[in-house]
Amino acid sequence: MIPRRGIRLLLPLLAAVLTVVALGAPRFTWANEGVRVEHPWTQSAAALGAALALAAAACGARPRALGIAAGLGAATLAALAAHRLAWRIDAVATGLVERSLGGAVQLEWRAVEAVEPRPGSVTLRARDGTTVVIATGRFVPDERIRLERTIARRVREAAR
Length: 160
What we know:
This protein is α+β, with helices and mostly antiparallel strands. Helix content is about 50%, strand content about 30%.
């Protein structure tokens, strides 16, 4: 049987490993009508597992500041799990839809007046002032390029 001290040391290590899994790249699903970008459910599960491991480590942690830090880390990882589960981008024939914990933003391609690719993000600006910023820092480079080209093609086709 593993002593209690060994478990206390293993829980933060488990949380660190699961956090690395949770921070993985999103999944791209390409189809004829467009692309869907979302995080696999395993990333959400890994973030939740990391949160639970840190919360368990926080329960008996001494000094108290260490327990508070572990509890805050667990809350942050739980929020990450919820974000990973809720976030999705659909770039289809009708337009772009971004869903997140804050709700959904929908842009029709004909309403987009500017597409601004930058290192780490792609920004779409609509004529009505709506802005969608897609953080692309964790995207696989080839997938990012394909997404940018798809968006540019859809905007060009809608402008005709």
